[in-house]
Amino acid sequence: MAEGEPSYAVQRRSQNGQVWDSVKKTAFVLGTGLFIFAAFRNSVTWHCQQFWGASGDFWQAQWGKVYDVFEGNEMLLFCLGTMLIPSLSFWLFNAFLMFSDLTGKPQFITKYRIQLGKNEPVDADKLKHAAITVFCNQIFLSLPMVLLMYPVMQWRGNPCGPELPTFHWVLLELSVFVLVEEILFYYSHRLVHHPALYKHIHKKHHEWTAPVGVVSLYAHPLEHIFSNMLPSMVGPMLMGSHVATIMLWFCLALITTTISHCGYHLPFLPSPEFHDFHHLKFNQCYGVLGVLDHLHGTDLVFKQTKAFERHILLMNLTPLSQSIPENTKKSK
User: Fold this and answer.
1) pLDDT (tens digit, 9 = 90+) per residue, 99-118?
2) Which band of pLDDT confidence, cut at 50, 70 and 90, is reported for residue 6?
């Protein structure tokens, strides 16, 4: 600190620096994600057009066929896109993970376990209880919320219209969805960590200090509504999105949160180290992207750990628990 400089000026400059760092981190995360998504979409579109010989816009042609089948029953089409298909993607992915959790096979997957010695194998009864709870949350909470979402989306526009939104508009919408989810999830998540609420609501989710994929939706009903569902629903309602965009977003959100909870740091997939550390330590890493954690300083302990060093996209087949091992030697 410069001589004679007021301490509040230093604090203000530090806060401004944190805000700017958060903005840069958000831009990097969103930019990278959108670039990868765009490249993936263009590649898949090209191969589909070559293989099936579809003329014109492949995705619009496929949507036209689906729309013709469901025309006159748009609410059913809306539920199919916002509930059935995302749920199927969630359970298919988690079925594979649960098999690995229960059997310890294939070793190609289980060698990437984050918390070594935990869930090897997972308790079958505990996993069954979690899976049943998640299924009930989806049927008795998620489905009614999607049904209530439909008239809101009709009021905002035509969610099941015959024309798909442009690809660039979808990218813009996804960016908005991510930012809205980060804000709503971070603050609702911190709220349920308040002592007055934690033991009654959020403690259920934290029964798993070493989480597995299906635990991503294992929560008290109130938490499922306000912390799992609403943060992902508000963005599409604000934007008046098409059901196809909502379907894509819900599938991405469910797969991403499953990866964050799966307990394995797998090659070429987003790093789950951030949220896994939250389950281990409870009072760190509340958000999704980590932007608000950086801004509020709720990742300071995390940044001093090996988990932070391992919080990267794994681009080879060597488990990070081997390439960046915990330092077990005590310093003299």
Assistant:
1) 999 998 888 899 999 998 88
2) low
Q: Residues 200, 112: contact at Cβ < 8 Å?
A: no
Among 125, 133, 78, 80, residue whose Cα is nearest residue 101: 125
DSSP, res 209? S
User: Residues 6 or more apart from 159 whose CB is under 8 A from it?
Assistant: 74, 78, 150, 153, 240, 241, 242, 243, 246
Give the CA-trace dihedral at 88, 93, 97, 98, to 10 degrees: 10
Read off the tokens for 315: 């681009």
DSSP of 22-71, one letter per residue? Answer: HHHHHHHHHHHHHHHHHHHHHHHHHHHHHHH---S-HHHHHHHHHHHHHT
Structure tokens at 327: 């330092």
* Cβ atoms of 83 and 146 closer than 8 Å: yes
CB 104 within 8 A of CB 120: yes
Q: Is the peptide bond before 106 cis (omega within 30 degrees of 0)?
A: yes
Residue 256 in this model has a pLDDT that exceeds 80: yes
Q: What angle do CA 261, 137, 256 make, to 5 degrees?
A: 30
Q: Which of 172, 318, 182 is nearest to 260 (CA)?
A: 182
